[in-house]
UniProtKB/TrEMBL annotation:
Superkingdom classification of source: Bacteria
Pfam family, one: NifT
Protein known as: Nitrogen fixation protein NifT
InterPro entries registered for this protein in UniProt: NifT (IPR009727), NifT/FixU_barrel-like_dom_sf (IPR024044)
Organism: Rhizobium aouanii
């Protein structure tokens, strides 16, 4: 699923164009963000691809939605 990650004055947010949904990222598995899971304020979780730590934001990536059962 396409997800755009950007930095705002309130912190990192994720925008999912397919659902027209923008939510703050409230938890991330890796300090460097890339290659781990993130959790949005609404509870959705995504597995992010491995990207270089110096990847500039905003960036649109292909992320895998993690089911609520995982």
């Amino acid at each position: 699923m396409k997800v755009m990650i950007r930095r705002t004055s309130a912190g990192l947010t994720a925008y999912v164009p397919k659902k027209d949904l923008e939510e703050p990222i409230v938890k991330f598995e890796n300090e460097g963000l890339w290659g781990g899971a993130i959790t949005l304020r609404n509870g959705w979780r995504f597995a992010l691809p491995h990207l270089p730590l110096d990847t500039r934001l905003p960036v649109t990536i292909e992320a895998r939605k993690i089911s609520d059962d995982d």
